[in-house]
Amino acid sequence: MSFSTQGIELKTRNQWLRQATELLSSMRFAISLLSIICIASVIGTVLKQNEPVNNYVNQFGPFWSDIFITLSLNTVYSAWWFLLILAFLVVSTSLCISRHTPKIIADWRVFKEGMRVQSLKAFGNRASGVMADAPAAATSRVVQQLRASGWKVKTQVRDTPHGEGVMIAAKAGAANKLGYLAAHSAIVLICIGALFDGDMVIRAQMWLGDKAVFKGNGLIADVPAESRLALNNPTYRGNMLVPEGAQASTVILSQSDGVVLQDLPFAVELKKFVVEYYDTGMPKLFASDIVIHDKETGEKFEERVEVNHPVSYKGVQIYQSSFDDGGSTIYANALPMGALTKPFKIEGTIGSGVPLARDNERLSLEFTGLRVINVENMAGAKMGADVAGSETDVRAVDLGSKLKNHLGSGSKSTRDEQLQNVGPSFSYKLRDGAGQAIEFNNYMLPVGLGDQRAFLLGVRNTPAEPFRYLRVPVDENDSMNGFIALRAALADSQMRDAAVRRYMAEAAKGRTEAERLNLETSATRILSLFAGTDPWLDQAPSPGMGLNDRPLRLGGLSAMSYFLEQVVPENDRERTSDAMVNLLNALLLELTQVSRETAGLDPLPRTEASQAFLSQAVLALSDSFFYPAPMTFAMSNFDHVQASVFQIARAPGKTVVYLGCLFLIIGIFAMLYVRDRRLWVWIQPSADGRTEAEMALSTNRRTLDGDAEFQQLSNRLLQVKP
């Protein structure tokens, strides 16, 4: 039996109906739909789904983001065209099944015992000979042996010139054709289940005008009834955030242009969110201890939700999706980054904002996130390596892709891994009066990078960018106060002058007045260039933009490099740069001592640790001119409040999908591993009284195993005379 790529041909005079039916029921149309679904699935996998519109604009630009949103590529699996393709696939596959099922059933019932004897000679697998026993005995023996081997047998008696002959028709492996029906039925069942458990039911309610997407902002209680789904809604899938000690009974269903809410017949209370860790700091268990409050009966049920171990109640499944902050309080110190301002303390709750007043500028501080653990690969970490920014986000339940680039024993990574929890970090935004914001991510504790420890202060302009980290070296007290004091001293002209005087007190010994004057002038110039205060830098290009669209001033090593390129002849640049760097290091040492004296601290001892601090401080001071904020915030303490993110789903279609998957497995197994075989044995008496036999085998796939099976059958059934 063969299957054509053509569709059903209706006997009707309506040409459009005939052609449409033939197209929908054809194999080529079904394959085309499957190809489009595969392409759409790839897009949905590569492109992050259900992200805020601003994220797509920041990452791809306004042009491509408009195209993505217009084509609903940001919500592929709930897009109208994707659902339409699934519907067409259901129709096409159903028509294919209805077209081929009668043929399969008819072919399944037929033994084809009327096969002509001459036709047996056309088969690839054939045998003939003279049997040892009489025709009747031979026929009985062959039939019994075939039935004992699992063949279904039917005989037909025919008259021959020398007596009655018998055509024995047998078949086996008919499940191969049932595999076709099972596999195609599986596609229909899976698509129907996907359509029912997707957004089709919700979208249907919107199309009918009963419901509408909520596009505004505000509290859940303020969402109108038209954006709330009924309790008896048959299917939905959304997220619900529950802080520790709180309850929630409303699920948020994200749509491409807003949200709709689904009220539950029960409330979920989070008693405690539990995270267990390995010795490396990596999490090994995420779980939520919850209490389910039935609104109708008032009963309470204590349950535990773990990853891959959901809780089911009243047909609703509660999955552990991830976790988030539930309103933690952050205590931080505001430290100036070059600005002549005093440090001050500040506190706030994650998700809230605090106004800041500075130089008549409107700034606001927005606390956006707290991460209690940050697992880093510290293997080979050094001060020049960007180990930060690649941290593993433990909020994600599936951490496999973050831990290994490859799976399997044949593709193990050769890179050494030293996973270490480097402590908490918090993220915040500084927003100016125009509404523009810059995002920051600061670690609470210093991170060991090679032989030096440093605080990591991250910054990025858009969510699409990775964080860039300013590495602030620690002082002898394992804090960043020493660097902050040095940075403030660098911005203070009086302290710079004091540092120059301290340097000249030793460097001027043994020099003439002219040499002393030239050295002092050079020292003052180099320090002012490094500090970014030299008037010559007024015409220098800005390294970037800060808050309130204020251009950053060139400073640090970049300013000195720009000075060399513009003023010093090319042949003298290398010699001049070495002299400037040596002079700069000596001046910064004196500036450090001045800042410590001003702060009432002991002078910095001349040790290897002090030298390492100053070496890294030079780089950090230089990089600080690229820091787009006048201050940074160092977290001193926090009150951690966790929240669980649950995925709430009512998915009656999953049973249909599971059934479809079972059918698919059965169908593929039957089509690949079950061979449809038909066997004919013609037994007749000859003119000399002997028993002649002809045997042929037909199969849907000719294999070496099939040839061997036929050889065994022919030897066993025919039992040819020696």
Short description:
With 722 residues, the chain is α+β, with helices and mostly antiparallel strands.
What are the defining features of this structure?
5-stranded antiparallel β-sheet; 722 residues; alpha+beta; 5 domains; Tick-borne Encephalitis virus Glycoprotein, domain 1; TATA-Binding Protein; 7-stranded antiparallel β-sheet; 36% helix; 16 helices
List the helices and strands and how they pair.
Elements: H1 15-24, H2 27-46, H3 53-70, H4 80-109, E1 125-131, H5 135-148, E2 152-160, E3 163-172, H6 175-197, H7 200-207, E4 228-229, E5 236-243, E6 247-255, E7 258-277, E8 283-294, E9 300-306, E10 311-313, E11 316-325, E12 329-336, E13 344-349, E14 353-358, E15 361-371, E16 375-377, H8 400-403, E17 419-421, E18 425-432, E19 437-443, E20 447-449, E21 452-460, E22 468-473, H9 481-491, H10 493-507, H11 513-531, H12 556-567, H13 573-598, H14 608-624, E23 631-639, E24 642-650, H15 653-673, E25 677-685, E26 691-699, H16 704-718
Parallel strand pairs: 4-7
Antiparallel strand pairs: 1-26, 2-3, 3-25, 5-24, 6-7, 7-8, 8-9, 10-11, 11-24, 12-13, 12-23, 14-15, 15-18, 16-17, 18-19, 19-21, 20-21, 21-22, 25-26
Helix pairs in contact: 2-4, 4-6, 6-15, 9-13, 10-11, 10-13, 11-12, 11-13, 12-13
Low-pLDDT sequence parts: 382-414
Radius of gyration: 40 Å
- Report the principal-axis shape: elongated
Distance between the termini: 38 Å
